[in-house]
Write a structure and sequence with these properties.
Blueprint lengths: L12 H9 L4 H12 L5 H17 L2 H6 L3 E9 L7 H10 L2 E7 L5 H7 L2 H6 L3 E5 L2 H4 L9 H26 L2 E5 L20 H19 L2 E3 L8 E2 L2 E2 L3 H7 L8 H16 L5 E4 L10 H8 L7 H18 L3 E7 L2 H10 L12 E5 L3 H12 L6 E4 L3 H10 L15 H8 L9 H4 L1 H17 L3 H7 L2 E7 L5 H10 L12 H8 L5 E9 L2 E12 L8 E9 L8 H15 L4 E6 L11 H4 L3 E3 L10 E6 L10 E5 L1
């Protein structure tokens, strides 16, 4: 029986779990369990993986956990239905999405008291996100069936207002991101389809409340956990909602559905934590079109009007194009002659995708794993940011074996079901959608053009001058705050400290006296790179009063090698001097993924210094006196807003 259909099945998952349990070293054992979590599994196998992984995480510190490729993340759950049987599935799904989830469940049915009056245990836990896991019985107002639209509308408005108040308290009291579970449509219909036309029918009330809560969440910045279309009515012989279990133990989610529920929760947490995927790598033959273009020719491939199969490939391309329009980076890895493969993008009238949509095009006779490595390198993103789609099961298996960090979904035999399968996997779940997200695909495609010009250039200095770069620095405001939080939580390689923050935590930091928060946008002759760097500097009680600690410095890797670091430092120095600072102190906290910036401060003229009291043992510090400091050289025009 399939529970998570996009994940590959394991030949013998039980034996593999037992083999992992015998691995003596906790870090390696955890890595093997992470790989097992990325296989289709039932609730029993999930529980076994959870118990073993929990013991590993108890022995590993936060730094070792990060070294294993997992981001520690604290999620509190405030339920009005039983969730204990769902917790192992949430944690194991988190492993598969690069999270070490620490869960704290509030007292059953007391979500209002916890959020309005406070709770010491939740406060000590200091959650990064809080999930309101509510059921219809707890919040649907009791109305007579003959209640009119006005009466129903007022009752729904009051329920929505309460939700908004609870979200506000989640932010203000706990500094966490609110996640609202939409109501599962469990109501038994009274009049069949006519229920939708009766304002006070239970089915109509659930639908209306979900719609109004969705609108409010969009306005207030709450995130949603939608259990409707994403959770099927049945898995094999099991219904997602079992009234017997509800009446016996208030289990809203039937246990066989726990792995899927856990994954839905984990993917939202991954979006908040910044571990969602961001690049879709596509095979070509029999994936984007039917047939083999090298054998069948441009005219012989099956695509577009004229056949059901051709229309299905067009529909899949349209779905891919929509992902690209939403900011997913698109790339190609195909065993093909590049010139022949590109002809389809340039000349076929039924192609939805065009060459300009593809940020990196790898069509050759090299193995696909090597091509995918090249794509990651060219785009300056980690392999764990990639999703690879290929119709060939053998190619999928090879890539999974060679590149376990890459997500490789299982695909149905018919391309008609490709969009639904990729959507079901939830690889690209997001916590916000900014204009930089919408332009990301074009930005990466333009960056490929820059690299092509750089490869052909003989004079790097001349190339940088010719880019006509312009860097705009401005204080982080309300408009840039969502994208700033996104960068803080997603950036791993060019990130000096990898401190993660919610939007509320960032706002609290920026409101402190003496804190500097700068965002940087870069444009050049190829286009707008968007918001590419963030610097946060603040006074710290362990430093001298006139010194500022660079709490956070991160940058998009796609602008490496252009002098942006030097230009950004110049802007930071100007702002720090205006505040009366005498020195900047830089901190580097190694994570296993940010070795790229190990010598960042030394390269910019900072001098090593002893760490202040209470600093992490692995952290290293540098100091830059501002008196008569020499500004770093670069080829970028600076502007401040």
């Amino acid at each position: 029986m399939t529970f998570l259909p996009w994940l590959p099945s394991h030949d013998n998952l039980g034996d593999a779990i037992r083999a992992a349990a015998s691995v003596p070293e906790a870090g390696r054992r955890l890595s093997e369990l992470v790989q097992l979590s990325r296989h289709d599994r039932d609730v029993i196998a999930t529980g076994k993986i959870d118990r073993l992984a929990g013991k590993c995480l108890e022995r590993l510190g936060e730094e070792e956990t990060r070294g294993a490729g997992l981001l520690p993340f604290r999620l509190a759950i405030l339920p009005t239905h039983t969730v204990d049987h769902l917790l192992p599935s949430i944690r194991v799904a988190g492993l598969g999405r690069k999270l070490a989830l620490d869960l704290k469940v509030g007292t059953y049915g007391l979500h209002r008291q916890i959020l309005l009056l406070g709770d010491e245990e939740i406060e000590r836990f200091s959650p990064q996100a809080i999930l309101l896991a509510l059921d219809a019985a707890a919040i649907i107002p009791q109305l007579p069936i003959d209640a009119g639209d006005t009466e129903v509308g007022e009752a729904v408005r009051q329920a929505v207002d309460e939700h908004r108040m609870l979200w506000r308290n989640i932010r203000e009291r706990y500094g966490a991101q609110p996640i609202q579970q939409l109501l599962l449509p469990t109501a038994t219909r009274l009049f069949g389809s006519f229920d939708d036309l009766v304002p006070a029918s239970p089915a109509a009330l659930i639908a209306r409340l979900n719609a109004e809560v969705t609108t409010a969440a969009r306005q207030d910045g709450a995130l949603l956990l939608d259990l409707g279309d994403q959770m099927p009515e049945r898995i094999g012989p099991h219904d997602r909602f079992d009234p017997v279990r509800w009446h016996q133990g208030k289990q809203l989610i039937n246990p066989p559905f726990a792995p899927l529920y856990g994954d839905l929760v984990a993917r939202v947490a991954a979006a908040v934590g910044g571990t969602s995927r961001k690049c879709l790598v596509l095979d070509l033959d029999n994936t984007l079109w039917g047939g083999v273009i090298g054998d069948d020719g441009l005219e012989g491939i099956r695509l577009g009007q004229g056949s059901a199969e051709g229309e299905a490939y067009t529909a899949f391309q349209r779905y891919v194009a929509q992902l690209g329009a939403c900011g997913v980076i698109l790339a190609v890895s195909s065993k093909n002659d590049e010139a022949i493969a590109r002809r389809a993008f340039d000349e076929h009238p039924e192609m939805v995708l065009r060459a300009a949509d593809i940020a990196c095009f790898q069509a050759n006779w090299t193995d696909k794993a090597a091509n995918i490595r090249a794509i990651a390198q060219q785009l300056n993103i980690g392999l764990d940011s990639l999703v690879f789609v290929d119709d060939n099961p053998a190619e999928r298996a090879i890539v999974r074996r060679e590149l376990p960090e890459v997500a490789v979904p299982e695909l149905p035999d018919d391309v008609s079901f490709y969009p639904a399968r990729i959507a079901a996997a939830g690889y690209f779940e997001t916590a916000s959608l900014t204009r930089e997200d919408l332009a990301r695909g074009r930005s990466y495609a333009a960056n490929s053009q820059r690299k092509a010009v750089l490869v052909s250039a003989t004079d790097l200095d001349g190339f940088l001058k010719g880019l006509d770069m312009r860097l705009v620095a401005k204080p982080i405001g309300s408009v840039d705050r969502p994208r700033t939080v996104q960068l803080i939580n997603k950036s791993n390689q060019f990130n000096l400290t990898t401190r993660r923050r919610t939007e509320q935590e960032l706002q609290d930091l920026l409101s402190r006296p003496g804190t500097i928060g700068l965002s940087f946008r870069l444009t050049d002759r190829f286009g707008d790179n968007g918001l590419i760097s963030v610097i946060l500097a603040r006074p710290d009680e362990t430093l001298a009063p006139e010194e500022l600690l660079i709490d956070t410095w991160l940058m998009s890797c796609r602008v490496l090698g252009r002098g942006v670091e030097a230009a950004a430092l110049g802007c930071l120095i100007d702002v720090a001097e205006r505040l009366g600072a005498a020195a900047l102190v830089g901190e580097f906290r190694p994570t296993g993924r940010n070795g790229l910036v190990e010598n960042h401060y030394a390269s910019l003229g900072f001098q090593p210094m002893d760490g202040p009291p209470g600093a992490e043992p692995s952290a290293r510090f540098w100091r830059l006196p501002l008196a008569q400091v020499e500004r770093p050289k670069h080829h970028i025009r600076l502007e401040e807003e």
